[in-house]
Amino acid sequence: MPLSAVNETRGAVLATRVRRATTFFARLRGLMLAPPLDPGSALLIAPCSGVHTMFMRYPIDVLHLDGHGRVLAALAAMRPWRLGPVVPRTRAVLELPAGVLAKTGSRDGDRVTFGPAAAQSPH
Fold first, then answer.
1. CATH code of the domain containing 84
2. For residues 116 and 52, what is the distance between their CA atoms, to the nearest angstrom?
3. How far is CA 87 from CA 15, 38, 46, 73, in A?
4. Which pLDDT band, with edges at 50, 70 and 90, does 29 fall under?
5. φ, ψ at 116 (rounded to 5°)
């Protein structure tokens, strides 16, 4: 069942179609060799403490989340072929299309919640 992701601190919808990567192979693959995320889409990788953009042809926005949905690190427009930081206490990483963080004002310290996907458009 798809999820939606909302930045509760900013009152902004981050994604209306969040796919989860929870198995070893799904987490390992992530977005490698995948087409760019559509607007409103995202990938939630859990458990996860850091990501890379190897074998990707497009930038992504990345949110490192703790176990309570608090943003520990917000990385805007992480370019292809980069190694992201391993952020202590990260329990999950949300990968979004580049530009979502700027549009929503999302940053470190914000709180992100997940719920059933609703028919709302992302900001």
1. 2.60.120.1140
2. 28
3. 23, 26, 14, 7
4. confident
5. -55, 140
Residues in the chain: 123
Q: Are strands 3-7 and 112-116 parallel, antiparallel or unpaired?
A: antiparallel
Using a 10 angstrom Cβ sphere, with 0-12 exposed, 13-18 middle and 19 or more buried, the burial of residue 107 is: middle
- The burial class, CB within 10 Å (0-12 / 13-18 / 19+), for 19 is middle
Q: Which two tokens stand for residue 112?
A: 């992100």
> pTM of the predicted model, to two decimals?
0.91
Task: Encode burial over 22-44: b for 16+ CB neighbours within 10 A, e otherwise.
Answer: eeeeebeebbeeeeebeebbbbb
80: in domain: yes
